[in-house]
Design a protein that fits this description.
The protein is an alpha/beta fold and 882 residues long. Helices cover 43% and strands 17% of the residues. Strand 22, helix 15 and strand 23 form a beta-alpha-beta unit.
Length: 882
Amino acid sequence: MCKDCKHELEGSYSPKDFEDKIYKNWEDKQYFKPSMDKTKESYCVMMPPPNVTGKLHMGHALDGTLQDILIRYKRMQGYNTLWLPGTDHAAISTEVKIVEKLAKEGIDKHDLGREKFLEEAWKWTEEYGGTIVNQQKKLGCSADWSRSRFTMDEGLSEAVLTVFKKLYDKGYIYKGKRMINWCPCCNTSISDAEVEYEEEPTHLWHVRYKIVGEENRYVTVATTRPETMLGDTAVAVHPDDDRYKDIVGKKCILPIMNKEIPIIADEFVEMEFGTGCVKITPAHDPNDYQAGLKHNLEIIEVFDENFKMGNLLERYKGMDLYDARVKIVEELKENGSLVKIEDYTHNVAKHDRCKATIEPKVSDQWFVKMEEMAKPAIEAVKSGKTKFVPKKFEATYFNWLNNIQDWCISRQLWWGHQIPAYYCKDCGEITVEIKNPCKCGKCGSTNIYQDPDTLDTWFSSALWPFSTLGWPNETEDYKTFFPTNTLVTGYDIIFFWVVRMMFSSLEQTEEVPFKDILIHGIVRDNLGRKMSKSLGNGIDPLEIIDQYGADSLRFSLISGISAGNDMRFMPEKLESAGNFANKIWNAAKFVLMNLDETESILEEPKELLSEDKWILSKLNTLIAEVKVNMDNYDLGVALDKIYSFIWNEFCDWYIEIVKTRLYNKEDNSRKTAQYVLNKVLCDSLKLLHPFMPFVTEEIYGKLYNEDESIMISEYPIYNIKYEFKEEEKNIEQIKEVITGIRNARTKMNVHPSKKSKLIFIAPGFEQFILESNGFIKKLGFAEDIEIKEERIGIPKNAINIVTSGAEVFIPFEDLVNIEEEIARLEKEKEKILVEKLKTDKMLSNPGFIAKAPQTKVQEEQQKLIKFNEMIESIEERIKGLL
């Protein structure tokens, strides 16, 4: 502790009084920076970068708390620790916000132009970019903010362009016309990982196509999108479907377009669905697209990316897709092609950000070949180089990689890393360079221009574990901290981000990006629902911090959780956390008030009493168990054990046990009790510090220790010299006895001021009882203790408490004045008899029985039964007293 600090806590627990002050001190002292001590083992955690213009939500709070617990734990263990923070440029969401802002000012993005738009984007980022960082600080995050990175900063941009060129030169990045996911709201392509599915009601239109050369024979197809039929280039059936084997290879007439299209056989057709015939529209369906490539079918676009009909038919040209659907269905009815319409529910692809319906679209885009890069990523987890916690999430990881498609990485946006591909207007050559080549690499022409598209945000995020440390340069940070140790993230972005970091790191550095992946669940409301704006059940972590303090929020997020599982955020957990912090605060105030103002309190005593050995041994066991829990990422279990020890063993038992020694200044063991109180509280606070950093720092600074701050103090380690199993057993037996005494007195409603004699029969335990005479008397409300070898002479009416190591007898008259108790019971019996008489009269009244509701009659009958039972019980108690 600081030399000028007073050894006292003032006032009641009020986190607002010290949390901000403590955090500023940590930052000023630069405690968050790594030591860079080469003799120490390194430990590095990369903060999953939140959106630069985002705000802290409960998911961030859980994620940040988990990471901070790990980094504080390792820092206290003496590791050279780095928690590297940063933010993501969040291409789509940021661009949408800027477009909306400009629209309010009457400015169109395209009228403004790319250069001016990017200026606005940087202004926006600078204005709102610090919000989430300041909020993370309020949570207590001890990241090294001096090393904070941004996915669009100069170093990370260099890494992005370097990787693009390396993959392009290797043939892993290519440009091609393929089917992609198109978001009509954001006006850009998106990857498969950004698509989610929702059930929506629609219709199934059954349409018949006449088979060429067959009199009155048709094939009927069912579709949820009749407007796309204008671009049909085939009808497909399953090759094993006996119903249609004779028409495979023939042609049918496409209604409205009145043109012949082939009937093909393909195994992707489900024979059981509908009629077993499907229309093939390669331009507007992923399965149809693959079938089109396989059967060399023409790809005909029916509408554009804005859902406007193309010029296939003049009467529909430029019409909105859904308006065209109505007209096309009418036309199918008129020409007799529409067979029927059914109600139907199906899964619809949605953009996970804006929730717009995704349109499959054949487009010229940039892709990354995934097949080869997926293999080492799969092997790294199979071999154990990288481990998932819990292991069950390997299945999600493997499933995604085993079925991975080429990754569409180009986006039709301006905010982001512009693709470093340059087109020659004279010869058509594509040149890929990190810097503008200024001229064509083939013909030497200077008439070149850069591809206007930007890269998928996840392309830069995939490089996060190594690009943030300085790669492609061999920086000191990169050499020291890569590969990193632990990634903490939610299960919902395993395929978005974890997979991409794995294959990117292995491809670029030949190393896994991290050794362990700690997966956490989603923070749900107290009803188990996902928090959302539409449900209005979102909780603002900043409001909780303002009301309860950061420690209470952190405690409520971690207590009782297990890795990988969703958690329900219960408001009562905040109350529990606040009560716990208050309990520690008051216990610390008591300890400090009963410590002598002398540094000699740090000198280990030569002799310890049984209760001292017991608490030190319990603490020692806790230290060993918590280390195992922390190392296995069972953070919720570790916190609950620490909570139980501090609340129960230390506060409720040890402090109460040693009060008699503390209050007697002539007691030779007083200094020993003071030493143990200070040591156990200091070590308990150290164990708790990663979870509740602020209150532990505030209290630790007032206790006797030689540390400048708890966060850079040495984490407690198990020490065999504090293993006192015999004393542990003895004190636990005394606790059992005292608990039994308290329960008996509570049941009999005995006032605490009423003292009694305690008679022990405890073979082999007598000496320990004599040694512990003082605190047994205090905690057992005894005025005298007697030890006997057998029951002779013990009053017959004595209350008997049987425990595993002893029998205790309390003379009944010591607890109760028999005459007064009989009088009290007789009075209680009279009151019940009065109520019983009222009920008897009511039930013996024929008018009541006839007119009162049956439920009321039954209620009174139950009352009568209860009154009789109570009277019988009182009479038995009186009889026992006579």
